[in-house]
Amino acid sequence: MGTWRRHLAAVAALLAAAQARSGEARLLVRAGGLRAIDAPLGAELPLPSGLRGVPAEELAVSVREARGSGAAVAGQALNIREGKADIRWVAPELAAGATREFLVSLSRRRSPAREGFSWTEKPREHLELLLGERPVARYMCARDGSTPERAEATYKPYLHVFDAGGKDFITKGPGGLYPHHRGVFIGWNKLGIGGKTYDMWHMKGVVQVHRRFAATSAGPVFASFTSLVDWLDPQGEPVLSEERTVTAYRATAGGTLALLDFESRLSAPRGDVVLDGDPEHAGFHFRAHDAVEKQATRYLFHKEGIDPRKDRDLPWAAMGFELEGRRYAVQIVDHPSNPRPTTWSAYRDYGRFGVFFRGEVKTGRPLVVRHRVWVAEGELPPREELDARASAFLSPPQVEVTVP
């Protein structure tokens, strides 16, 4: 029996060596207990000898089903360490409990990817994400105190989302109804430190200032940036320091305008900070454009009978709204690692909704808050589809690297 085991181990080693030379790997993907739609997946793969030393941005990645004749989808190498590449791609759909095999092929890219993500920056104003030539989102990061009007327009960074044409925002900027609501944003109206409380929602006498971009990356499937943001008190001293990372995925479903992960890593540089407020004026929120048709706004939750004013710890909430005769759908998913309990504000007809929690940021112990936002043109989809989208974030499929 021992001889056979040694023989099988030798065969496996030979197969692994062949895989390393060929630039192809086999992956086993196990879905969770719910169907998953647009599930970002990843694996660390050894690079074949002929590709070692090639920068990640020059690697072409192709992923296809091991069985069947379905078309391959694009993947992306995010970084390379010790002869291994971190490969990512988006699986269009995985059935609940399914186990599927994929083949990943690696080669050197002969020409730049034309249809992938890219960033364009207007320094000290904004960073814009494009997919091919279409603008997808714009991170507003200006800070200008030269006039009262400019100071109010630039007192917090936030993210805009574009319409399908890439010409107009479907999210709200400065001015209008509740001028402190801005696109996709985060804040608390009762942020306490040292016996003092600051309103980091309405931004009364305080500011959130983008300092610089710590990192940006873009490719065929993924794009991300990390913005360093200081939350300043009236004296200009930081109450919180934030590393705000936004990751965009190339979704496969028709109608999707943006599929985005938000991660805020909050640190307390001067002492413990209390995060407090109420669901209307604190937390992580999305605000639709000021010109929404209020009578057409509606909300959907993970099951019937939900009262967001009373029910706690909802996994997600979704909003359907109308803007200039077009329908849009937005879903926010709350990561299970975020503080509990949570309360959702998801009932306002003017198009602002989000999730609130109370918490504390201890000095030397950063608090990480994660959310996923899906935005699409079209009617609000049925609950079953939104569950599947949330599942890809709440219980992502597991990936195992095997040999061919």
How would you sum up this structure, described in words?
The protein has helices at residues 2-22, 148-153, 383-394; strands spanning 24-30, 36-46, 59-65, 73-81, 84-94, 99-108, 117-122, 126-131, 134-140, 158-161, 184-188, 190-193, 196-198, 207-218, 222-232, 238-249, 256-267, 273-276, 282-287, 298-301, 316-323, 326-334, 342-345, 352-357, 359-361, 367-377, 398-402. It has 404 residues and is mainly beta. A hairpin with a 6-residue loop joins strand 16 and strand 17. It is globular, with a radius of gyration of 23 Å. The two termini are 24 Å apart. The protein folds into 2 domains: 2-110 and 397-402, Immunoglobulin-like, CATH 2.60.40; 117-388, Distorted Sandwich (Beta-galactosidase, Chain A, domain 5), CATH 2.70.98. 10% of the residues lie in helices and 49% in strands. The strands form 5 sheets. It has an 8-stranded antiparallel sheet with strand order 14-15-16-17-26-22-21-20, with helices on one face.
In brief, what are we looking at here?
This protein is mainly beta and 404 residues long. It has helices at residues 2-22, 148-153, 383-394; strands at residues 24-30, 36-46, 59-65, 73-81, 84-94, 99-108, 117-122, 126-131, 134-140, 158-161, 184-188, 190-193, 196-198, 207-218, 222-232, 238-249, 256-267, 273-276, 282-287, 298-301, 316-323, 326-334, 342-345, 352-357, 359-361, 367-377, 398-402.
Count of discrete structural domains:
2
- Number of strand segments: 27
What does the main sheet amount to? 8 strands, antiparallel
Which spans of ≥5 residues are poorly predicted at pLDDT below 50? 1-22
What is the helix content? Answer: under 10%
The gyration radius over C-alpha positions equals: 23 Å
The average pLDDT is 92
Cα end-to-end separation: 24 Å
